[in-house]
């Protein structure tokens, strides 16, 4: 029986206008009322998803989120970190050199703060337009504090050029980091082994649940691990071909209440 539903945000729970449909909201409320844990699994930090958590009534004691693509597992009501895995300062140096070689702008996230680094003289980061709820700073390469916790690094830029440069990333970088696209214009770097499945598995363990008790719903490359880990992996109709191939089942698109349909079919119906 499904006891935890893990849901991605962009392209999954949110429609193209970054809104949660009434049907999705109602299905999540019904699942929570029946004791099912509803967990947002996202690449964003907790501070950037609070409006959605509030809208879904997921800020009570016992509500959790998996943030930073599995780098943190947090309590939604207090923000308490119960599981974490972050980048080392030495990792940042490697990623800075990579971004400079690729002529791409690199941003480093430290909880709710984003540090824009001058790794490209001509290409400016678009990350601030994607996550306006975060606090953004432009800093020099020598201004990064070695003692600060850094959760992930991202490159937010035009999709065509970004995709061209992604092909140039050396294999040793892919061996050192999880390198994943989470949106068309967003490439993310996490510590090796840190994925949504990693964070979700830690939360499931803490809650005494098995993968068979988990349903994961997603659409993009950074959802692949979660889809594969879950007892029921659900791909949106708008998901990438890779996600659809990895999923157990497929639901409607994010414009057609796909999350609600999956919850009703595989969670609520099973409890009747």
From TrEMBL:
Coiled coil: none annotated. Residues 91-109 form the HTH cro/C1-type domain. One of its GO terms (molecular function) is hydrolase activity. This is Cof-type HAD-IIB family hydrolase. Keywords: Hydrolase. It comes from the Bacteria. CDD domains: HAD_Pase. Pfam families: Hydrolase_3. Its EC number is 3.1.3.-.
